[in-house]
Structures are given as structure tokens and as C-alpha cells.
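can u do me a favor
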């Protein structure tokens, strides 16, 4: 027993995929008014008689026809084959007339492809068939989309097989027409359906679906306000309109399908969309805090923040921070873009490597040029960042760039400057409000009289219980891919650094502690103690049983405490005196060690 399964208009029958025929006008190669030259060849042997044909369009073969002589008796069977001899459908003729054209319909129509050769045949158990000799020797026969092939196009036409039962007719004749025919329903391309539109960045994104009963379109034509604005291939079902869109203007879209003969359908359903000018600014968080809750990142994303910039080494050192990868992973998972920086620009290499598997997702690495520690940016640093395939950006606090860089302030015209100094641009209209950032001026490079890539909006603003610096960037500055990346492991579990923990010095000496010589030192130490490992109102320091990680955190805590204690001593004692006392201590210590070594050697020799 043969089973059939019907699903969404598609029928799977006897292992073949068959599609129910859509309503249409059936067509055959010959009309029922045409008669053969020889009605009865007088051959009484049992045989299968066939014809090779093609169609110019996809459609459904619904049945088989043949011309019957009065002597062509017995039970006739009609068949459809591919040229490999696979039977695609079969049917037994019933209710035949004594002679003339006979038609039988398949139980299920068979969808056939355009420009592909098929064979239609019928079985005559008592012979006495009709025939025109040499019919296909010099020409094909065409009616509408159907063509019976001339000899030589795909082998010989007019094929047969003598056999006691129905079989594939593989033997070539002498271009003979045995007057067997098909019933074919052409399928035409139909207009697409379910057209939808949404604004995406600074464009309108359209998408639609093909009508399930339609043949594949050659292409789709997109209309805006009844004017063609573009086209895509028939296998593509979306279009991005970014052509001269005007804010506040409402546009009406529709899509037409076009077939292989370049005939277009009517329009799809129409859709209207009012274009809203996109705000070119994007909100940015700059933070050195411990954040353990992935939900925090999702919440700030909902607040409109799109870039998370973090300090990636243990504060005041070049040691990769143990929690860098966790926090970058959580930020990416929430849909944020990421970037990193280190307060000491000498730590650029470990600062980038601390990102681990997320290095290729970094928007940039910020070389931080501030009075604490007051390290000038060098060309070696910039080139070093580039060598790791990360974009270098220079950050400088308001008014600090020229003072720190001195004569080299104009030597970095190829590096964008992220600066809080707005004195060179007209920002009188700008109100610093992170919930609704105004457009940020963008374009220009790292020279004193050009615009900056970002403008600091707030310092140490409390965002969902965490103190952060809030900035605004022009969205066009963010170019790395949009796809979020899953964290390498449970974000609640701190990641042990996989990069070298020793400071890497590039372009200058590494500064392992806060500067102790400038008037800004004390406030900087206070800020680093606040940002290096504390979270206000709702975020807590992580605790881990990993000895290596705990040791790193202990070093950070110890250095911060010592830095705070040393601040008072710095205020009371000149730097030169501190240096002298420290040097004397080192020399005295070295002398003691030397004496111990000499005594040990003498004792050893005596023994």
C-alpha cells in the first residue's frame, strides 16, 4: 500500500516530492484535432512508445495523451520518466474511446523543471500504433512552453522498447513520432507576500517571503513610492534602502517578482515607514570597577549604552587583571562593544593580551596620557598596538595633552584623540546628559586644533550602583562586528590570567606604582583606590579560592593601602630626601649581604 503525507500543500508520495498544481490552463504539444499520417502501422507486438520533450518554464505534468487506432487494443499504461529511466509517474487509461486521442490523469501532478529533458510514453500491449516516420529529423515541434525535441538536441527522438510489460523506452527510432503527448500546467511566478519594514541604523530594512505556490523568481524589484529603487536576485528576500532618506518623511514600499522571461508580477502588499533621523552618538562607559553580575551589563545596554571601555591590568601595575576576560565576556554577551586601556601607557601589551579570546573584538586600545603617571605617548607604543591588530586611540584628560607631550603633541596626526577638552569646538548647545546624548562632533585627528572622537559627558557618575565615567562617541567610530560572543566560562567564576603576569615594557620603562612627584598625585591615588577594586551601592568585590588569583588581588589591595599611607609622607618630605634614604637603605643592605657571603665562603673553605 502506498502512503501519502500532505504538509503545507506539498505531497510526499512514493518517495517523490510532488506539488499540487495551481489553477492554470493546461497545454499539450498537439490539439485533439491533429491526426497522424499513419493511423495504424499494423505491428501487433507488445511495446512501449515514447517522446522526448522539454518546457521553458517550471510546471506540473498532470497526465498523458496518445493517439489510438481502432486496432490498438488492450490495457494501456501512461508513464513519465527522466532520462535516466526513473519513473516519475504512471497511470492506467480508462474509459477509452474506440479510436482517436485518449487522455489519462496522474493521481498526483509532477512538478518538472524548465530546460530539462523528460520522456513521456505509453504501453500498447497489442501494438497497431500510429506513427509519422522521420517527423523529428530536421526540426522540433513547439506549442507554448512545450517542445518535442529534434533529433540530436538530446539524442534521438521517437523512442521505443519491445517488451511484454510497460518499461522505459530506451531504443532510438529513425526520428519517428509515435503520437504520445503530455498534459502540462505551466507555473508562473507570483508576487511576494508578507512585506515588512523596520528602520536599521540610518536605513530602512525591507524583508518579504515568496508565495509558496509560486515558482522561483528570477529577481525581485523594490519600489519606493511607485518608483523602482533597486533589485535583488530571486533567492534574496531582503533589501536595505539607504538612498536619500529624509527625516520625518513617510515612504511607501512594495516589491514585484520577475520571471525568467523578464515579466513582472503585480506589487506585493504595500508597507509605509516614516524615517526617523538616527542619533549619530553612542553612549560609552569607562570603568575600572569589579562587576560580577551579567544582568548589570544587560541593564546598561537597555539604558542605551553601546560601548564598554575597561582598565585591563591590575591598577598601578602592568599585570593583567584577573577579571578582565570575565567582564569583557559579559559585556559582549549583553550586546555591548568593548575596548580596553591601562593607566600607564607602557603597559599597552599586557593590557591588550589581558583580553584573551576577546582581543579580536576590541574596538581600540586607549593609550592613556595623563599626569598620573605622566608618561608621554611614543611612536613605539602606537606601532606596538597596531602590531597586535588593534586600533590605537590616545586618551588625554582635559587640557593635559600638550603639557605631557610637549614638542611631540603634533606628531600623532594618524591617531584619533579621545579627549575631554571641548575648547576647540562649539559645544555651547550641548548638555551633558547620559540618558539622552546630543550628537557628538566627529572627524579629525590628534592635533591641537582638530575635533576629537569623543567628549566626556560626566565624571564618576553612578550608573546602577557602579561609579563610571560616561562618554559619547560618534557611532561611525565603532566598526568591529556586531555578533555577541559567549563568555568562555561561567561569569561568576574569575578567570585566571592566561597571559604573562610580568610587566611588559614597550617604548619606555614600566611604572609599577603611582607617581609621587606631582601635585595631582594624591587625588589620583584616591581615585585609583576607589576605581581599582570597589563597587558602590550594589556591586561587590569577587572572592576566589584560587591562590594565584587571591595573591594578585592581595597585591592590588596592599599597593593601594600603601599608596594611601605614603601620600602623607610625600607631603611631609621632599622627594630627593626620600630617594636618598631609599638609596642609603639599598646600599647598606647590599653591604650586609656582601659580608654574609664572604663569611660563608671563608667558613666553607675552612671546612
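np, heres the sequence
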Amino acid at each position: 500500500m502506498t502512503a501519502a503525507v500532505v504538509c503545507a500543500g506539498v505531497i510526499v508520495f512514493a518517495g517523490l516530492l510532488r506539488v499540487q498544481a495551481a489553477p492554470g490552463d493546461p497545454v499539450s504539444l498537439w490539439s485533439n484535432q491533429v491526426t497522424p499520417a499513419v493511423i495504424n502501422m499494423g505491428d501487433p507486438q507488445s511495446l512501449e512508445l515514447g517522446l522526448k520533450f522539454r518546457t521553458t518554464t517550471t510546471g506540473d505534468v498532470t497526465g498523458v495523451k496518445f493517439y489510438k487506432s481502432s486496432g490498438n487494443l488492450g490495457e494501456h499504461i501512461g508513464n513519465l520518466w527522466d532520462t535516466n529511466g526513473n519513473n516519475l509517474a504512471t497511470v492506467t487509461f480508462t474509459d477509452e474511446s474506440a479510436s482517436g486521442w485518449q487522455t489519462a490523469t496522474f493521481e498526483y501532478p509532477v512538478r518538472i523543471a524548465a530546460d530539462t529533458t523528460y520522456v513521456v510514453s505509453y504501453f500498447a500491449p497489442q501494438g497497431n500504433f500510429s506513427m509519422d516516420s522521420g517527423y523529428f529529423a530536421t526540426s522540433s515541434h513547439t506549442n507554448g512552453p512545450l517542445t518535442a525535441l529534434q533529433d540530436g538536441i538530446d539524442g534521438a527522438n521517437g523512442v521505443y522498447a519491445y517488451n511484454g510489460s510497460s518499461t522505459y523506452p530506451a531504443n532510438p527510432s529513425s526520428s519517428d513520432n509515435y503520437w504520445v503527448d503530455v498534459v502540462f500546467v505551466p507555473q508562473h511566478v507570483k508576487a511576494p507576500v508578507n512585506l515588512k519594514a523596520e528602520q536599521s541604523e540610518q536605513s530602512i530594512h525591507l524583508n518579504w517571503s515568496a508565495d509558496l505556490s509560486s515558482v522561483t523568481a528570477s529577481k525581485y524589484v523594490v519600489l519606493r513610492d511607485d518608483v523602482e529603487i533597486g533589485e535583488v536576485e530571486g533567492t534574496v528576500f531582503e533589501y536595505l534602502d539607504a538612498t536619500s532618506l529624509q527625516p520625518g518623511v513617510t515612504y511607501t514600499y512594495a516589491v514585484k517578482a520577475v520571471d525568467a522571461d523578464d515579466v513582472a508580477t503585480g506589487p506585493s502588499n504595500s508597507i509605509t515607514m516614516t524615517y526617523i533621523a538616527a542619533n549619530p552618538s553612542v553612549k560609552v562607559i569607562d570603568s575600572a570597577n569589579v562587576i560580577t553580575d551579567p544582568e548589570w551589563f544587560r541593564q546598561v545596554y537597555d539604558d542605551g549604552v553601546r560601548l564598554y571601555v575597561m582598565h585591563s591590568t591590575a591598577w598601578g601595575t602592568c599585570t593583567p587583571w584577573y577579571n578582565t576576560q570575565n567582564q569583557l565576556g559579559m559585556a559582549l554577551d549583553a550586546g555591548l562593544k568593548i575596548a580596553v586601556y591601562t593607566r600607564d601607557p607602557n603597559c599597552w601589551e599586557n593590557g591588550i593580551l589581558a583580553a584573551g579570546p576577546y582581543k579580536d573584538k576590541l574596538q581600540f586600545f586607549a593609550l592613556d596620557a595623563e599626569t598620573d603617571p605622566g608618561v608621554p605617548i611614543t611612536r613605539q607604543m602606537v606601532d606596538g598596538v597596531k602590531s597586535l591588530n588593534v586600533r590605537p586611540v590616545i586618551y588625554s584628560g582635559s587640557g593635559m595633552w600638550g603639557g605631557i607631550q610637549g614638542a611631540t603633541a603634533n606628531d600623532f596626526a594618524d591617531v584619533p584623540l579621545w579627549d575631554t577638552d571641548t575648547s576647540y569646538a562649539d559645544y555651547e548647545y550641548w548638555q551633558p546628559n547620559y540618558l539622552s546624548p546630543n550628537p557628538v562632533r566627529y572627524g579629525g585627528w590628534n592635533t591641537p586644533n582638530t575635533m576629537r572622537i569623543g567628549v566626556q559627558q560626566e565624571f564618576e557618575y553612578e550608573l546602577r550602583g557602579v561609579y563610571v565615567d560616561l562618554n559619547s562617541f560618534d557611532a561611525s567610530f565603532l566598526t568591529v562586528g556586531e555578533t555577541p560572543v559567549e563568555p568562555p566560562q561561567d561569569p561568576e567564576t574569575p578567570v585566571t590570567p592566561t597571559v604573562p603576569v610580568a610587566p611588559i615594557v614597550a617604548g619606555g620603562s614600566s611604572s609599577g606604582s603611582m607617581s609621587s612627584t606631582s601635585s595631582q598625585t594624591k587625588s589620583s591615588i584616591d581615585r585609583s583606590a576607589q576605581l581599582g577594586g570597589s563597587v558602590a551601592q550594589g556591586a561587590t568585590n569577587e572572592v576566589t579560592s584560587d591562590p594565584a588569583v587571591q595573591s594578585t588581588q592581595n597585591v592590588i589591595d596592599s599597593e593601594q593601602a600603601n599608596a594611601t599611607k605614603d601620600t602623607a609622607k610625600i607631603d611631609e618630605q621632599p622627594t630627593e630626601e626620600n630617594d636618598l634614604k631609599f638609596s642609603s637603605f639599598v646600599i647598606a643592605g647590599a653591604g650586609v649581604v656582601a659580608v654574609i657571603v664572604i663569611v660563608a665562603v671563608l667558613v666553607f673553605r675552612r671546612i
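The CA atoms of residues 68 and 99 lie 5 Å apart. hope that helps!!
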